[in-house]
Amino acid sequence: MFGILISAILLFEGNFCCRTVVSTSVTYDSKALVIDGKRRILQSGSVHYPRTTPEVWPEIIRKAKEGGLDVIETYVFWNYHEPVRGEYYFGGRFDLVRFVKEVHEAGLFVHLRIGPYACAEWNYGGFPVWLHFIPGIQFRTTNSLFKKEMERFLAKIVNLMKDENLFASQGGPIILAQVENEYGNVEGAYGVGGVLYVNWAAETAVSLNTTVPWVMCAQADAPDPIINTCNGFYCDRFAPNSPFKPKMWTENYVGWFLAFGYAVPFRPVEDLAFAVARFFETGGTFQNYYMYFGGTNFGRTAGGPLIATSYDYDAPINEYGLINQPKWGHLRDLHIAIKKCEEHLVNANSTQISLGDNLEAHVYYKSSKECAAFLANYDSSSDATVTFRGKSYFLPPWSVSILPDCVNVIFNTAKVTSQVTVDDNSAFTRSITMRDYSLSSSSSWSWYKEKVGVWGNNSFDASGLLEQINTTRDTSDFLWYTTSINMDEKIGQNETKEVGLFVGSLGHAALIFVNKRLVGFGYGIHDDASFMLTAKVNLRTGSNTIDVLSMMIGLQNYGPWFDVQGAGLYSVILTGLTDSKEDLSSAQWTYQVGVEGEFLGLEKESLANSSIWTQGSVLPINHTLTWYKTAFFAPEGKGPVSLNLSGMGKGEAWVNGQSIGRYWSSYLSPSSGCSEDCDYRGTYDASKCFKNCGQPAQTLYLVPRSWLKPGENLLVIHEELGGDPTTISFVTRKGQRICNHVSDSDLPPVDTWEPIVGFGSTTPQLGLKCETGWRIASVLFASFGTPRGNCGASFYPGICHANVSSTIEQMCVGKQGCSIPVSTAALGVGDPCPNVRKSLAVEILCQN
Questions:
Q1: Taking phi first (over 0 means left), then psi (-120 to 50 degrees means alpha), and beta for anything else, what does residue 747 get?
Q2: 328, 769 in Cβ contact below 8 A?
Q3: Which residue from 13, 52, 190, 403 has the least number of CB within 10 angstroms?
C-alpha cells in the first residue's frame, strides 16, 4: 500500500476559538484507492474552472454531485496563471483556490491535474508562450531549461494548495495529483530524452510531498509509485503496469470537441454507459468523464488550430450549465447501480464465466452466498437470452446488465428510462421556450473601418517571409505581410496584366489584398491548417501593393514537438509575367503585428463614446475588417443568454469589454455524414456520430449573466470577412420542454425524482424534473397505452390510448419534479388494452 497516513490535526483560528479539521489519508493498493482505510469505487468528472465563471461554479458542482460523482477533476492552466514569467494571476475565472474550495464545500474530492502540460484543446496546450522564447529551451524532454521552469511551476501550485490546506492530509479535498499528460502518446518522438524526462517528472512530483498519490495518464512506463492510468473511449482492457496499482481511467470521452468547419460530434449515452459498466465489470476502480461539464473557450483560450469557442463536448451538463438529458440521468442511474456493488468490487476478485459467443458474466463474491454480477453482450448487432445461475436474462446487443445481488437486474446500459430535454443539446434552438431580443435597427450601430496593410509607426521591415508565431509572440491573432512590385518593365504604359498569385501558408487563414482590393480568402482545417490560395489578379503600370493579413485561430496544443509548429506565410509567387514565375518569398516585406482596432482598444468600454466611431444612416455591411458597436439592454430573467451570430462571417465579439470568443459563422461543415440517431451499437470513435451537417459549427455564443449589468450594455464585434450586424440578436431560455417514455415492463429505475426504496421494486417509474428554479407549468401530452413517436420529436396516441393528462397534472404541475408509477392502478384508469404491453409517454413544459 502506497501513501502516507496522517492523523487528525487541530488548526487554531485567532486567539478565541479552534476547530478540528479531520485529515484524510489517501493510499492505494491493487484493488482501489484507499481513503481513510477504506477502498472506494469513485466516479469523477472533468470541470475546468476557466471555462465558466465563478458565479456558476457552485451550481455546476452541485449538479455533478447529484449526478452521482464523487470527484471533480481539473487541469491547471499555466499560461493564464503566469502570463509573464514570474508574474502570477489567480483571479476571476482563474481563481484556482476558490474553485477547489467550492468543490470541497459541496462535499466532493478533487483530482488536480497540474501537468503543467494540459492539451485540453487549450491554447498552446496550456504552456505560456514566453517559455518558447527562452534561448536553448526544448519542451517536454530532458532539457535543463525546460525542467527548471516546469519544476518551478509545479512547486508553485503544490505550495499554493498546501498554504490553503487543500490536500486531503490537511483536511482538504485533493486526493490525487497528476504530473505531465498523455506523454506516452508522443514519447517515442523524443528518443532517449523522453525516457529520461518521464523518470525525472515522476521523481520531481513525488519530491514535492503532496501526501496524495500522483498519476500519469497514458503512460505505460510510469515509474513507481506513480499510478499509470488509461485515457480513451474504452478502458475495460487496460491493465496498470504494476500488480499493486489500481485500474484507473482518467479520461472517458463523453463526446468530442468541436472545430470550425466540422459538424457537431456526439456520443450516444447507451455506448457511454456500456463503456463505463464494462470498465467496472473488469476490475476498474476510478473513472473520470472528460468532460462532465465542458463550458466555453472564452477570448483566445481555444487551442488549435480552428477549435471552436464552444467546448460543450456533448457533456452531461451542457455549455449553458443545463442538464443534458438523457445523458445525465442515465449515467446517474448507472452510478447508483455500480455503487450498490461497491463492497463486492473492492473486496473480491471476479470470476469470469462465458455465456456464449460475445457473451460473458463477471461475478464478484463477497461470501459464498453474497455476490454481485455483470452480464455483458458485446455483440454489436444480435440480442441474446442467457441463463445465469438457473435464471433467464435478456441482453440487448452492446449492453451490460448489473445485478447487485446476482439475481435482480436493476440497470441495463442499453435501456434508457431517463427523461429527455427537448432541444437541450443545441441549448437555444427557437421554440416555444425561447425569446429573441433583436438588435435590428441599423441606426443603433456605430462602426470603424480598418486600414488595409500597415497602419502604425511600429511596423518593421525584413527580408523574406517571417514565421508568424515567432513574430507576434501570440500577442495577436493577426500579422500583416506587405510588399510591392513595380510593373514598369513588365508591361506597357497605362496597361494592366492579369497574372496568377499563389500564396502558401502554414495556417490558419489569410485575407489577400492587391492594391488595397480584396482578391481572396484562404484557410485550412483543424486536421491540416496549411493551405495554398490561388487568385487571378490584375496588376497595373507602376507600383502595385500586395497586403496579406495572416490569421491564427488558436496555437497548436497537441502532438510531438507541437510547440515548434509554425503559422503564417511561407511562399508568395506570381505567374504569367514572363516565361518564368516571380518568387516574392525572399523579397523585402513590411510587417505589422495586429490590426489597428486592437491597438486602439476598440473593444473597451472606455472608448464606447469616442469620436473614433462613425455613426450614420447607412450602416456598412458585408465589409471586411470592420468593427461594429451598439448598446443593448440585458434580456430579462435569469436564464442563460446567448448571442446569435448566424448572420456574421468571422471574427471576435465582446460584451462590456469581455471577449465571448472567436466566431466563424460563414464556415459550413460538410453537407453529408450526419445521423441524428446514430446507432450506439459497436465501437465508437470521434468520427462516428455527427449532427448539423451543412451548417456552421456554432452560431450561438454564451454570454455569462455575470458579465451583464442593469441598464445599457456594450456589444463590440470585430468582423474580419463581412457580415450584417443587424441580424444579431440575444436569445435566452425562458423554459424547457421535457419528455419521457417508460414501458410497464421496463426495468424499474434505481433512483427517480422521488426515490423508490430498494432495487427489488416491480413498478417502473417515469421521472420528470425541471431545472433548478423552474416548475412544471403544463402537461403537453400524456398517453398510457401504445403511444407513438419519439421523445424529443413528437408524440401521438397509438391504437391503444388512455388520456391521463389530468392525472399527470394533479401529480406534477407546480412542482420542480415528480415520479409517476407506470401502472393502471397508479394512473387511475382501467386497462385500455388487456394483454397488450403498455407504456406511458409524457411531455411537459417547465417555466421559471
A1: beta
A2: no
A3: 13
DSSP 799-822: SSEEE-HHHHHHHHTTSSEEEEE-
Told to judge if 489 belongs to the known catalytic residues of this protein, a careful annotator would answer: no
Helix (H) or strand (E) holding 151: helix 144-163
Q: Which of 20-29, 311-320, 683-692 has the lowest mean pLDDT?
A: 20-29
Residue 664 main-chain phi, psi, to 5 deg = -155, 70
Backbone dihedral angles phi then psi of residue 425, each to the nearest 5 degrees: -65, -40
Residue matched to cell numbers 442593469: 710
Question: And the C-alpha cell for 723?
Answer: 457580415
Residue from 265, 271, 273, 268 nearest 294 by CA:
265
The C-alpha cell at 428 is 437555444
Rounded Cα distance between 142 and 628, Å, is 49
Most confident of the following: 19-28, 430-439, 629-638, 686-695: 686-695
**Residue type at position 463:** S
Sheet strands (E) in 689-824: 690-691, 700-703, 712-719, 729-733, 735-743, 765-769, 775-785, 788-790, 794-796, 801-803, 817-821
What b/e sequence results for 514-553 when a residue is b if at least 16 CB atoms lie within 10 Å of its CB, and e otherwise?
bbeebbbbbbbbbeebebebebebebebeebbbbbbbbbb
Which of 116, 123, 100 is closest to 179 using CA atoms?
Answer: 116
pTM of the model: 0.94
How many other C-beta atoms lie within 10 A of the C-beta of residue 102?
Answer: 21
Which residue has 424529443 as its cell numbers? Answer: 792
Task: Tell me how far apart the alpha carbons of residues 184 and 178 are, in angstroms, rounded to a whole number.
Answer: 14
Do 772 and 810 touch, CB atoms closer than 8 A?
no
Catalytic choice (73, 102, 251, 342): 251
Please provide the DSSP assignment of 441-493 as one string: -GGG-EEEEPPSS--STT-EEEESPPPHHHHHTTS-SEEEEEEEEE-TTTS-T
State the sign of the Cα–Cα–Cα–Cα dihedral 644, 648, 653, 656.
Answer: negative
Interatomic CA distance for residues 606 and 61, integer angstroms: 35
Q: Of the candidates 13, 72, 10, 1, which has an alpha carbon nearest to the alpha carbon of residue 42? A: 72
Which residue has 463477471 as its cell numbers? 362
DSSP per-residue codes, 411-453: EETT---S-EETTTTTS--SSTTEEEEE---GGG-EEEEPPSS
Instruction: Find out whether 784 and 840 touch, Cβ atoms under 8 Å.
Output: yes
**Closest by Cα among 435, 374, 386 to 410:** 374
Which among 739, 636, 846, 771 has a CA at the least distance from the CA of 320?
A: 771
List, in sequence order, every beta strand (DSSP E) within 29-181. 33-35, 38-40, 42-47, 71-75, 109-115, 174-179
Compute CA 436 distance to the chain's CA centroid, rounded to the nearest angstrom: 26
Residue tagged 425562458 (cell numbers): 734
Give the angle 579-581-585 at the CA atoms, nearest 5°: 160
Is 483:489 a contact under the CB 8 Å cutoff? no
Residue type, 598: E
Helix and strand counts by DSSP (H, E) for the chain: 12, 51
**Residues 6 or more apart from 306 whose CB is under 8 A from it?**
259, 260, 261, 508, 524, 525, 526, 529, 553, 554
Residue showing cell 499560461: 79
Q: For this structure, is 251 an active site residue?
A: yes
Main-chain dihedrals φ then ψ at residue 281, nearest 5 degrees: -60, -35
What whole-number distance in Å separates Cα of residue 693 and Cα of residue 156? Answer: 45
Q: Which entry of 102, 149, 182, 652 is annotated as an active-site residue?
A: 182
pLDDT tens figures, 359-389: 999 999 988 889 999 999 999 999 999 999 9
Residue 478: φ, ψ to 5°: -120, 145
pLDDT tens digits, residue range 82-141? Answer: 999 999 999 999 999 999 999 999 999 999 999 999 999 999 999 999 999 999 999 999
Q: What are the grid coordinates assigned to 99, written together? A: 474553485
